[in-house]
Amino acid sequence: MARTPRSPLSASRLLAVVSVLLFILALLPTRAIRWVDALARPLTFVLGPVQGPLTRAAQWVSGGGRTEPGETPELAELRRRADEYRALWLNVQGENERLRRQIGELQKGFALNPEGMRQVYAPIIGGGIDLSPGLLRAKAGEREGVIVNSVAVIEGVQIVGKVTTTEYRYCLILPITQRAARGLQGVVMLDDDRPGPICRLVPTGTGVLNGRVGSDEDTSAVPLRKGMLVRLDDPEWPASSRMLVIGEIEEISTHPQQPTRRVISVRPRFKLDSISEVVIRVPTEADAVTPPSTERGSP
Amino acid sequence: MRWPVVAIMAYLVVGLEAAVKPALAISPSGFRISPTFLIPFITFVALSGPTLPVLWLALLLGAVADLYTPRDVGQLVVLGPYALGFMAAAYLVLVMRGLMFRRSPLSMIFLSILATALAQLVVVALLSIRSIYTDPQLWSAGVELTNRLLGAVYTGLTAGVLSVLLFPLTPAFGFQDLHSRRFVRTTR
User: Contact A143/A182 with Cβ under 8 angstroms?
Assistant: First the structure.
């Protein structure tokens, strides 16, 4: 009996061809696969309706990502308000200093921009299916006026990260503890209202940021202890986010090559990869910082 | 195999994967270990389903996993690693199913663990090759492989849960009994 000739487009051959194409696509350089992002956008609309409720249910069961167990809700609310007022006061102090300089510069004839920001509440509905990039997907996007480089915070003052991508209804936030975030500059608070030495913090990828403290002889003698707050003081971030909390000093050690300099490990007060909601501080046009080039190309 | 039923269940499982997986993730000693729901689902379908449709299902679910995983700072999607990894996982189950009791939760748990390990091996291999010429500082193959292989063991838990939920629904999937298909006499 004659064999039926196989169609050139049989399912098995098509599978083989598609597999080879996917293998090639997986290894192409970043520049050659930028267009694939356009294929991913419709998925957010399709999966969002089921992901949101399931995420809230899962977070309700697991209890969120606080690192301070045993706190009553009333105490947590009071602590949150105290932190907010303190950060606001420090920001206003810095603002006063800036305004004094601005007056001086205006008198010399320089034009300066006003500052401001708007706050948008956004629940976190998860990240990607692969957790290794560490990005958080928030349910607020261009429809709510969120722009790239907006700062996400939790509990009013704890920095979560920056918005890196926006879609119509969602945005992606890169937590400061992820290695792709590259690091930020902070100031160690010697007490509630006294800023101390500057530190450049780099994320280790394990939920902690490490950095060297200060760069001169004066700062090397400043006493540091575990539990001290480190606040944001980075010109690459919007001015309205200055003095927000990066975290608390968890460990202090000596730099291996420079024994006179100290290295601190800073841990945010919340587990940033398991939070349930954020507030996105959208800068005004004048407050916005131009995002750096994103041509990095991590796998 | 009834594709509408498979599609609906796959949609729910993808939702579980995206929503519940971060909540189940644990971080002992600097590792980040999380289970998967997708591969136990693929394992369930592969235990009883026809070969080619199972491989297509695995490829499509893997492609969804790739597309729904933003990389770099959220502006890059790499299509291929999970699609090929899930296909390899499905192929492993298809090869080994003849040696297992197909309706046993233990079989599903055991095969899910092996299949997840193989899938993650493929994913790490492809992403590690990419990291050579993209940004090697942001990718640590050893750490990723350790996290993912431990996650494969953790997947035994989700496989056990899914087996309890999915095995009673087997008739709805319309799987043909492979034994009766093998011994059907064709009349001419």
Answer: no
Region class of B34: left (phi > 0), else alpha (psi between -120 and 50), else beta: beta
Phi and psi at A190, nearest 5°, equal: -70, -35
Distance from CA of B187 to the nearest CA of A (A): 15
Query: Which residues in chain B have Cβ-Cβ distances shorter than 8 Å to A52?
Result: 19
Instruction: Give the burial class of A146: count Cβ atoms within 10 A of its Cβ; 0-12 exposed, 13-18 middle, 19 or more buried.
Output: buried
Q: Which of B32, B65, B127 sits opposite A129 (nearest CB)?
A: B65
Write down the pTM of the prediction: 0.80
State whether residue B23 is helix, strand or coil: helix
**In DSSP terms, which residues pair with A46 in a beta bridge?**
none
Do A203 and A176 contact (CB within 8 A), yes or no?
A: yes
Which stretches within B25-136 are classed as H helix? 38-48, 51-67, 81-96, 105-133
pLDDT > 50? residue A26: yes
Rounded Cα distance between B90 and B51, Å, is 9
From the list A200, A192, A257, A191, the residue with the least C-alpha distance to A225 is A191
| A198 φ, ψ (degrees, to nearest 5) | -85, 150
Find where tokens 């990869």 sit: A273
Residue type, A127: G
**ipTM of this predicted structure:** 0.87
